[in-house]
Each structure stands twice: as C-alpha cells, then as structure tokens.
Specification:
94% helix, mainly alpha, single chain
C-alpha cells in the first residue's frame, strides 16, 4: 500500500513537473510572439508615416505641376 502510494505520488509529481515545463515553454513562446508583434507594430507605424510623407510629396508635386502647366498654357494662348 505504501509503495503504491509512493509510486502514485511520484507519477503525479512527474506529471506536474511536465505540465510546469510545458507552461514555461508556452510562456516563453508567448513572450517572443508579443515582442515580434510590438516590432511589427513599430514597423507598420514607420511605413504609415513614410506613406503619408510620400502622399504629401506627390500632392505637392501635382499642385506644382498643375500650376506650371497652367502658366505654360497661358503663355502659349494669345490673350483676348
């Protein structure tokens, strides 16, 4: 009876140790995934700022081009 109880206790202890080991592995993986997610969020924000800057530059260039084209047309056409 005593030996059986010891065997069960050891088995339970081994199971518990295995579960704790798995839990630690999951915790470390979760930590790594959170870190990767934070890095991706930062990269996304950088890309969004770059995109906004490019859109602003394109808009400015489009405006300048339109103005230059208007000036060119007004110089070519005779005024009435």
């Amino acid at each position: 009876q005593k030996n059986q109880s010891l065997l069960e206790s050891n088995s339970n202890n081994d199971d518990l140790q295995e579960k704790l080991r798995q839990l630690e592995i999951f915790r470390l993986e979760n930590e790594q995934l959170r870190s990767e997610l934070e890095t991706q969020k930062k990269e996304k924000n950088i890309l969004l700022r770059e995109r906004d800057s490019l859109v602003q530059t394109v808009s400015k260039l489009d405006s300048e081009l339109t103005k230059a084209e208007y000036q060119r047309i007004s110089q070519v056409q005779p005024r009435k």
